[in-house]
Amino acid sequence: MLRFIARRILIAIPTIIIVSVLVFTLQQLLPGDPVLTMAGEERDPEVLAFLREKYRLNDPVPIQYFAWIGQVLQGNLGISLRTDIPVLTLILGKLPVTLELAIFAMIIALAIGIPTGIVSAVKKGTSVDYAANVVALSGLSIPNFWLGILLIMLVSVRWQLLPASGFVPPSEDLWLNIKTMIMPAFVLGTGLAASLMRHTRSAMLGVLRSDYIRTARAKGLISRVVIMKHALRNALIPIITLSTLLFGELLAGAVLTEQIFTIPGFGKLVVDAVFNRDYAVVQGVVLCTAVGFIIMNLLADILYVLVNPRLRHAQ
Amino acid sequence: MMNTSALPSMLDHTRRKSESDAAHPLLKVENLSVRFDGAPAGINVVDDVSFAVAKGRTLCIVGESGCGKSVTALALMGLLPTPPARIVGGRALFDGKDLLALPDRERADMRGNQTAMIFQEPMTSLNPVFTVGDQITEGILRHRKISKAAASERALEMLRRVRIPAPEKRMRAFPHELSGGMRQRVMIAMALANEPQLLIADEPTTALDVTIQAQIIALIHQLQKESGMAMILITHDLGVVAEVADEVVVMYAGRVVESGPVEDIFADPQHPYTIGLMGSVPSLGRRQGRLTTIPGTVPPAELMPRGCRFSPRCPFADQRCVSDPPPLIELSPGHRARCWYAPLELHREPIR
Ligand SMILES: Nc1ncnc2c1ncn2[C@@H]1O[C@H](COP(=O)(O)OP(=O)(O)O)[C@@H](O)[C@H]1O
Ligand code: SF4
Ligand SMILES: [Mg+2]
């Protein structure tokens, strides 16, 4: 098992290198001269030259890459061109916010997706199943930004139940923090709930047809035990993997939702950085989310083996 | 796979059932009919099936693949997938209670308790994510008010009884760590853990290596003798039937075509299909060793004849056979055949 984990981590390393090269290269292709942005109204060639020198923008691209990756490995993601704050500090400042949002959203997704998936599998072909599928399909096809705006207009503007924006750190006011997180987490969570529901449903349908479910019933076990223990435990194996991957996507993909609810997380950081051509920050954020995503993939693989006795022993 | 080589020596001992057993069977199935949604109207996968089995006795159901043996067994256990399956008629009196009419909960209370079943597919019949010990213990705890430790002890004892080597170690094993034969032993241990009065074994050895098959049958047979339970054994193997059966039910295309005491069925088969099965077709003047040598196959449901379902393959078939379903005729005490011309030697000369 430990060897499997070690092997799996080794495989992840080249992926991370490729990602870092990609991140760096794409960055070079972005339009706009960051020095001009930084200098603002200033057009003094000497100042511009000084800035280019300071941020090593004159070096050949491969040199720039190695200089950058060398620093990254030491935990130095560079300095924000715009704010002069170390990128790592910026990211670590935003990470808890995005993490909180992602965890919230995941809880909502799991709490909705898995039970509805189970029910619609067990009640396959009935109106309950049909309704759940229609709702799930709508959930998948409604864009998050639209649902977000709709919620703001109804819940915040018309009914005035929850604040539309104005993030407050949990350390300051936990209750207010939760109130500001509910809607964005709901928007993100329902999107995922739909795909979790459909995957849970099909996994359960497959499992419920298997011989060992018939054996469980032959023992006289009541339906609830057959479904919630014997079937679910098997159906959850692929669902755990999927959830881990979805969580990785959440970390990276909440940009639009964070924008709509003005949540100061990764999304806002990256959007601001792109608009300001703040290379270092964009690089840092994209690299971090990519690495985070790869780690979640790794975790998904390991969990898949851990929860699956057949594989656990084979490794 | 039909094996008739071992027949003669095994039929020596007589197994005539006593009068009292016949009068008080443990399970009495009367006119059981099952249909699947989407099948043509009036075509039941199991049609008007009746038989009885008494305490301590073994009833073997034989017939080629697809003739409704498993559906019959699952219907009795209440394990049919409904839908698409639907029990459209009949009763199954167990100790006087109609199993088919019991509420779901009472039915579940009996499953794995008074009635138990072993399946054809040992490789897939155990839950891959739970240990063998947990799976047996769970069934015991479901029906007995005892402590977890006592149930676990009982599970271990069952593993010993089905002669699994190193049972303490196997308790903690997952199914994939065991061979097919060992898994079937686990299934047997699980089925017998609550000392059922009736065991249904649906082709318990078909999926196993030939060398293991005899061991498993011998084990089941011995455990049955020890416990005195009734058994319904579904099998392809006529050698096994000769060895363990008291009564035999021969099914063809969902119907019982012949039933009776084992020695009558082997010594004096009366239905043309049974005669084909037995590989001895005296009136045709030649021997047929295997079931597959009966020319033709079971017609699909859409083409099922209204009359005798065997008529497309029967060398004696005539117009009445095709249009009118033959009745089940009692030829001697307990020996019945569903054929217009039974007993054949009085009625028919072979046509081809
Ligand atoms: N779930 C199902 N849906 C439709 N038809 C089925 C189903 N299960 C079994 N059948 C039909 O019932 C018939 C009898 O099957 P079965 O009892 O399994 O045969 P066997 O005698 O080999 O055990 C088969 O012809 C099969 O087509
Ligand atoms: S009823 Fe007719 S067709 Fe059917 S088995 Fe008898 S002789 Fe053959
Ligand atoms: Mg079968």
Automatic annotation (TrEMBL), chain A:
Source organism, top-level taxon: Bacteria
GO CC annotations, alphabetized: plasma membrane
Domain ABC transmembrane type-1 as annotated: residue spans: 95-304
Single annotated GO MF: dipeptide transmembrane transporter activity
UniProt keyword annotations, A-Z: Cell membrane, Membrane, Transmembrane, Transmembrane helix, Transport
Localization terms from the record: Cell membrane
Main localization (coarse): membrane
A Pfam family of this chain: BPD_transp_1_N
Transmembrane annotation, as ranges: 9-30, 101-122, 134-154, 174-196, 236-261, 281-307
Membrane topology: Multi-pass membrane protein
Family listed: Belongs to the binding-protein-dependent transport system permease family.
Name of the protein this chain belongs to: ABC transporter permease
Organism the protein comes from: Microvirga brassicacearum
